[in-house]
Amino acid sequence: MSEDSDRSADKPAYRRVLLKLSGEALMGEERFGISHQVLGFVADEVLSTVSLGVELAIVVGGGNIFRGVSKSAGEMDRATADYVGMLATVMNAVTLQDALERRGMKTRVMSAIEMSELAEPYIRRRAIRHLEKQRVVIFAAGTGNPFFTTDTAAALRGMEIQAEVLLKATKVAGVYDRDPVNDPNARLYDRVTFDDALKQDLKVMDSTAFALCRDNRLPIVVFDLHQAGNVRRVVTGRPLGTIVQQEKATRFAEV
Questions:
Q1: How far apart are CA 231 and CA 168, in angstroms?
Q2: 111: β partners
Q3: How far apart are CA 8 and CA 220, in angstroms?
Q4: Residue 143 near residue 159, CB atoms below 8 Å
Q5: 33-53 pLDDT, tens per residue?
Q6: Quick one: pLDDT at residue 69?
């Protein structure tokens, strides 16, 4: 029997995790907006993971609808454009909440911008209490401030709720020494230190988010979201993607 087939034997390696989802991840093959097929896939991944008893929080981006630094922003004032981008993350969060609840999960959306008809205001202690009650908490509206990305919001919220790891779900297998899209010989790291990632300019996250994780020793796991079961595999500690952390030898994945 394979490791994946014996799902009943899975035990979580982490008690509380923060999952960062980009808005683009919800697009699928669409040019903009939300693919309901992808949304259902993500919801199934979350259900499989929380069934382990893991306390799961999610930060969702808004790039599938609007980004403050994009052509769609045109000549808008940067702060105004960023606030519009925050509203896009709320739309994604509420849509994801609906998909999760249709699968029987208890959820809460917490927004950094107050909008009481749609979401609770973000209060750190309340968020932690929701997690302790096995509710999936979806953080929306970034940090509530312009000029900060949702990567930074993920790092900040991860530390505030005392997450043990930040899971960055992407379209690629992990962190490479070169851009795998442009270089077929790019090599995948299975682990890399924060310092080496900085020295090699590996672009794991934006610089503010990366510095927050490094300074507060919050490990980051970068992995491919689009293979079924990967979120659960990462949470149960199986070797997958790239882990970025302190004081571990940098290694390439075996081919």
A1: 10
A2: 121, 140
A3: 26
A4: no
A5: 888 999 999 999 999 999 999
A6: 58
The full set of domains in the chain, from first to last, is 7-252 (3.40.1160.10)
- Global pTM reads 0.90
> What span, in angstroms and rounded, lies between the C-alpha atoms of 227 and 45?
10
Long-range contact list for 249-253, CB < 8 A, 24+ apart? 249/191, 249/193, 250/189, 250/191, 250/192, 250/193, 250/196, 251/189, 251/190, 251/191, 251/192, 252/177, 252/187, 252/188, 252/189, 252/190, 253/174, 253/187, 253/188, 253/189, 253/190
Model pLDDT, residue 72: 64
DSSP letter (8 states) at residue 6: -
pLDDT tens readout for residues 121-170: 999 999 999 999 999 999 999 999 999 999 999 999 999 999 999 999 99
Helix, strand, coil share (%) of the chain residues, nearest 5: 35, 20, 45
Retrieve residue 214's tokens: 């490094």
Please, which residues bridge with residue 136 across strands? 107
3-state secondary structure 165-188: EEEEEECCCCCECCCCCCCCCCCE
Question: What are the Cα distances from residue 94, in Å, to 79, 179, 217?
Answer: 23, 33, 31
Torsion angle, alpha carbons of 61, 62, 67, 71, to 10: 130
pLDDT greater than 90 at residue 201:
no
